[in-house]
Amino acid sequence: MKFFIDTANLDQIKEAQDLGVLDGVTTNPSLMAKEGITGKENIINHYKKICDIVTGDVSAEVISTDFEGMVREGEELAKLDDKIVVKVPMIKDGVKAIKYFSDKGIKTNCTLVFSAGQALLAAKAGATYVSPFIGRLDDISTDGLNLIAEIRMIYDNYNFDTQILAASVRHTMHVIDCAKIGADIMTGPLSSIEGLLKHPLTDIGLAKFLADYNKGN
Ligand code: E4P
């Protein structure tokens, strides 16, 4: 399973990269705005900074909602770095744009996916990644993990190459459950990755080992 970090915060991206388990980054316009990154030029420069830190794929989202605009923006973004994946919303023109990018060998991440049907369409269009938002489904009392299981079954039935990128991951249990179901990737905050480290018995055990070692010194 690959781990992506879902942030535009450079310090957190560096921290996850330094941990040695980071496989990529996802961003969106809201995450950019959260870091105070606004305006096309600043956003482009920020993508370049992220690409300089990480070794894996970096999802960069288009703002246009029409086919021509998405193609123009996506081609511009893809030229920034080989790591850039063009993030396209699951709307009608988005599906057309994903097919266009796929035919041109440009990597895509189909975002804002909330149903198995949408995921099937994204795969048919040739998306590199599909992003079902599990946390936002949980927020409206719908089982986000069940959607991951449905997509896994459909993609396996037909050997689709599209990778399931479980998005809107909020905590460590989401990560563990996605791993059990067989999501290819999860993207979440740094806390969802670092939270996997923690267990009180590890801390108690280590304290005891060190105390016993020190008895002999
Ligand atoms: C996915 O790529 C999105 O950036 C993200 O996972 C959305 O998460 P949220 O629902 O926590 O905003």
From TrEMBL:
Top-level taxon in the UniProt lineage: Bacteria
Pfam families referenced in this protein's UniProt entry, alphabetically: TAL_FSA
InterPro entries per UniProt: Aldolase_TIM, TAL/FSA, Transaldolase_3B, Transaldolase_3B/F6P_aldolase, Transaldolase_AS, TSA/FSA_arc/bac
Subcellular location: Cytoplasm
The entry's keywords: Cytoplasm, Pentose shunt, Schiff base, Transferase
Enzyme Commission number(s) from the entry: 2.2.1.2
Main localization category: cytoplasm
Active site: 87
Record's catalysed reaction(s): D-sedoheptulose 7-phosphate + D-glyceraldehyde 3-phosphate = D-erythrose 4-phosphate + beta-D-fructose 6-phosphate
Pathway this chain belongs to: Carbohydrate degradation; pentose phosphate pathway; D-glyceraldehyde 3-phosphate and beta-D-fructose 6-phosphate from D-ribose 5-phosphate and D-xylulose 5-phosphate (non-oxidative stage): step 2/3
Enzyme superclass (EC): transferase
Presence of the UniProt keyword Mitochondrion in the record: no
Protein task: Transaldolase is important for the balance of metabolites in the pentose-phosphate pathway.
Xref: HAMAP family: Transaldolase_3b
Protein family according to the UniProt entry: Belongs to the transaldolase family. Type 3B subfamily.
Name the UniProt record assigns to this protein: Probable transaldolase
Native species: Aquimarina hainanensis
